[in-house]
Structures are given as C-alpha cells and as structure tokens.
Amino acid sequence: MATGLGEFLRILRGGLEKGEQNSPARGDTQVEEFVRARRRRDHDTSMATPCRLQREPCKTRPVFELCAKGSHGNYMERLPSEIILKILSFLDASSLFNISFVNKRFHDLANSNALWSVLYASEIEKKVWRPQVSMIKEVVSSTIVEEKPAGYWKKLLLKEMAGYKDTLWKTELKHKNPHTGMPTLTEHVLRRLHIQWEITLTNRHGRESVYKQTHTFFEDSSVTVCWSQSFWPFMFTLNSLQLHGIMCPASPAPGDKPRWRSLIRKTALQRTGHWSFFGADRLVKVLQFDKGVIIGLWRGNWRIAFIMINLHFHKLIERSLLGSRFCPYIPADDSAVDPDCSRHGYTLHIVLHNPVRRIMCQRFSPLYTRRVMSQGEFVQLIAIDFANVSEHVPVAKISLPWQAEGLQGEVERCCMMTLTVLDEAQRPFWCVSSTVKMYRRQRVLDLEHVGEQFIVLYEDAEGKVKMTFVLMEEFQHYLLVQLVTMFPAAKVKRHFRGEC
C-alpha cells in the first residue's frame, strides 16, 4: 500500500514538472480563460459582491499570519522613546497624568519636563492677565526646562489647575476669627467653591462604593459631615474607608469630566485593633475609628446605618482641594516665631457639639505652661482647676442624635469635641476634631458639688485632654469641673525652634 502511494506521488510530481516546462502559449491560454471567466462573473451582478467578500479574507489571511509569526512582545515596548514622547505631546494634562500609571516606562516618559512645560505655558496663556510673549518663552526655554528637576513643571501645572483661583480664596482665608483663631470665612469659601465630601468603601475583594454626603453641621471651628443612605453594605465585608474632598460644579452637565478628588484620610475597617465600642441605644450601636470617624450599625446585624466624621477648619480647604486621589495634602512648615513665645500665654478654644446643636463653647486665655514629669516630659495647660469653684462651667445634656432610613435616636454621654490651642502669636499649635465618650470616674474628686462624676479622656501622638464632669440631676445638666491639656515638650521645641 505504501509502495503504491509513493509511486502515485512520484507520477504526480513528474506531471507538475512537465506542466511548468510547457510553452508560453499555454500560459496565455490560461490567462485568456481566466479573463473570460472574470468577465462572465462581472456580468452576473448578483454574484459579484459575494465573490469579493469571500475572496478578501483569503488575500489578507496570510498577511496577518505573517505578522503574528514575526511579532514578539508588546509593540509599544519596541517603539523608541522619541516616538512615544511625540504621541504623548498630543494629550491634555488629565490624560497625561493618568497614562503615567501604566508602567514604569510610561511613568518616566509622562513626567518629562519637555511635555509639562508646554502644557504649563498654554495654561498661563488662558489667564485673563497674559504676560508678554517673551516672558513665556523665557519661562519654557529649553535651557531652563532641562535645569529644573523632574516633575517640576508637572507640579506647577497641577497646582495651577487644582488651585481653583487659589489667590482669591487664600486672600479670604487671611482674616482670622479672634475668638477661635481660625479663618473667619471658611464656611463661606467652602460653600462658594461648592466643596463637598464623599466616602469610598472598599470591600475585601477590592470593589469600591462611593457615597455622597447627606447632611453637614457647621461650627465656628469645625464641620460635621453625615452620610445616611438607604443601602449600605455589611460591616464585616469592608476593608477600608477613604474620605475625599471634591469640588462639585454649580450646575453639573451630563458630559462633565470626573471631578478632582483630594484624599483627606484613609481608615482601616478591619475588626481587630482598629475600632472601639462608642455607645448604643435601642436601635443602633456605634463604633469609633481613628478618633474622628464613627459608624452606626443596626442592632442584630452588622449592616451600616450611618457614618459621621468631624473635620477641623485648620487647613480644611487645602486638604479638600490640593491633595490627590491617593495622597493627602501635606502643609508646608510655617516659619517659626520667637522662641520666647513658648513661655508666654497660650489660648485654648473648645467646643462640645453634635450634628444638631452646640453643647458647650469656651475660650481660655492666657494659659501658662508647667512641666509634668510623672509620665515623661510633658507641658501642661490647666484651663479649669477642680479646686477653684469659680472656674466651673455648666454644660447642657451630652448626647449624639442620629437619623437613618426614616428612624432616629440618641446615644447618651457621647458627642463631638473640637479643640484648638493657639500660641501667643495666635498660630495653631494643636488642633483636634474627634468624638469623645464619658466614662464613670473611678477615683472620685473631693468636690463641693454632690453628684455622679464622669471623665472624658482623649489622647493622640500630639497631646492629651482630660475633662471631669459632675452630673447635677436636680438641674438636668452637667458641671465641667476640670479641663487639662498636655502635650510633649518635644512638640513645643519643634514648634518654636527653642526651649519650652
């Protein structure tokens, strides 16, 4: 069988070789036959289009197969850097910023000063006040562009674009409130720029859900932001919470680009070691995260009911605008004042409030420091001494009201605290915005007032706060009999560049 097949193939090969040696006349005959057949097909219009459609893939298939066999790796990796830079030069700032996250090579090329200097020059030309052409050319000349470090022009352009007329609102923030030490027009600027805050919840699988604010409560030196949507995930499915500041357009259009998001804080939501029990009522239980974030959960399950975050006014507009989606805004180090100011008077402004009303607001000035060596080297400010009855301050009922999904309630003996410590030059020395909870005091102070004593403790890396309250049941309010703040002596030295 094999022998017969081999004989057949040899005969076939011989016949083909004889056909190739035929005279050209036979080839001409074949060409003529092909032309006549083609003319007949052209007359048949109904069959012409299908023939072309069927023949085109046959012609192009070998080309693609050849390209596939000859291709190795990514085409972009084989392109010279000069060609990629030419392609990137046609992108706008937003697209160029996003493409820098593709890989390391694109990151290096997309941060080229040559690209961002051109974009910066075009941005400057859009301003109402236009500098002279010679000035623009001098700014973006090749010599100066090469002298600047990598990312210099990118930083200038993003600051120019994300500043949102920062010259105007920075001028408005120069006017300080003599009572709080914070900018007087902070709330006005926040509302004029349409700045809002949104949270991003990330579950264990990396899926993100974004929620817009539903309610805000402004105080003299802080704002409390609340979220109370109808559909929340279960707490045990979440991995982290991110708080971003955004500037919403006054009249949003369907084709608007994604808004710039500035990261303010990122909080881990794992159950172990990241939260503490804060309080409860008949419907919800409240957990505290990172001092300033509280999350209410429905009793009986771990589904979220509401989220509240208290934000201090200190650098709030900068933190809400000038950061990026992944990196928060880092304020510049202010110039130091006279070191002797550390020995002079401080000012302490404290507000206890909730998302509905103010509970207490007090200002203490001047306060003088004293060293405490019992728990390390600390500097202490005593605003209210429990031994001095004339300094005791009455305080209204302390509670945290909430509202979610048409229901409402009130968690007793917890609230928001906004504390600001200013130096003699009225510069912010320590700013705190957090939730606080009252505990029954174990070691009772010897006081003239009779009643159950409660203590409020707050502590972070920058300092400590201790308050003592006495419950006056006959008057249905509390009495603040002690207020002490402490902070490390090293913090004073850093702030004043000298001895405390």
From TrEMBL:
Pfam families: F-box-like
GO cellular component: SCF ubiquitin ligase complex
InterPro entries: F-box-like_dom_sf (IPR036047), F-box_dom (IPR001810)
Highest taxon of source: Eukaryota
Domain F-box: 73-119
Protein name listed in UniProt: F-box domain-containing protein
